[in-house]
Amino acid sequence: MATEGRSQTEQTPQTPQFGLAQGRKPKAALTVVDPSLAGTPTSTPSSGGQVTEATPDNTISGSVETHNRHNGDTEQVAVTVAPSGYPYQTVGVVESGIGNDAGNVQKRGTGVLVGRNLLLTSSELAPWGQSSWWMRFAPGFTNGTAPFGWIYVERYFGYDEAVMTPANDYVVCKLFSPVGDSCGWMGAQTFLVDTGFTQNLWSTIGLMVDKSYSYPIPVIVQDVKIDTVQDGPNDKLLVSGTFSPPIASDEVKYSGWLGAPLFGPGLNPVVVGLFCSGIPTGSKYQSAWAAGDEMLQLIQYGLANWAA
Description:
308 residues; 3 helices; mainly beta; 8-stranded mixed β-sheet; 6-stranded antiparallel β-barrel; Thrombin, subunit H; 7% helix
């Protein structure tokens, strides 16, 4: 199965200002598929419809042992499990590996649906350069179960892990089935003016790996503030000095947070970035999300070429 890679030199610069694809709540019946309801390019901020299930419905009892990313010391951190329902169930766990054995997981992280059959996740989770590989996604993964099943990736498109920078650590994947009809998907957005990122409060969900549990935990963190935006030619790195996932700084690739979407504001959210790394600044680490026009271009490529 061939992968579809892309290097920086193959970019076609675009400057969309607002949402690229509309999010949408799940359909009431899977047997009726109306193409007119699918996500399509738009020039206005996108939304996913009204949401009534808006408050967390379960939390992990007590605290779980984790690590402080700033200094590596262990600490007790109480985490909140993401609510059920839309839009939270559009986020899930991503796994990939080599060969045909799905039981041999090489990489694990987080991803989010951005179309009926489109998954957006970290480039670092894709099995680049392998002649035989598998990759799969379970939206709404919680309590060790996949309520919408595991959907396998047919192909993917983005920046090869070997040549990417943190600011374009994203890849769009075509899924074999349009699971978005069942659980919905989020829209996507960027801003030409950086205050669009810094003047809002955002949420993020990561499928956190913790030694206290045998399965990833869908942890939600709300009111995340972006302090600075590092601008590239067509990409952006959203930096927060106040948010830090509860992991050790050298364990980012194995924490489950890679690919975690930064989304909001409110209950009709759009994805504005994917968690990519920690940026060392002296003795501390700042968290960062890959964002910008290039992320939207990948989604646009998927919508144009991989319509379900």
